[in-house]
Design goal:
75 residues; mainly alpha; 5 helices
């Protein structure tokens, strides 16, 4: 059975077979967070987040917080 026939029988979109997720390079976020924490270790997440936004980056709070937690800064 061919791929189009199989997908039709299973009611599965053929494009889903060929989709490749793009990897993100989040190293810049990690470096920036580390640098800001080094300068101001007493600042919490909210101040760090607004500092990053004031620098001109448009990352949302959920993405930044994921790395904030990963670095162990949420103590």
């Amino acid at each position: 059975m061919s791929i189009p026939q199989t997908c039709a029988v299973l009611n599965f979109n053929r494009n889903s077979l060929y989709y490749k997720a793009k990897g993100r390079d989040d190293q810049k976020i990690i470096e920036l967070l580390s640098c800001l924490v080094e300068k101001n270790p007493r600042n919490g997440f909210k101040k760090l987040y607004f500092s990053i936004r004031n620098l001109g980056f448009d990352w949302n709070h959920k993405r930044i917080y994921r790395f904030y937690k990963k670095l162990g800064l949420n103590i």
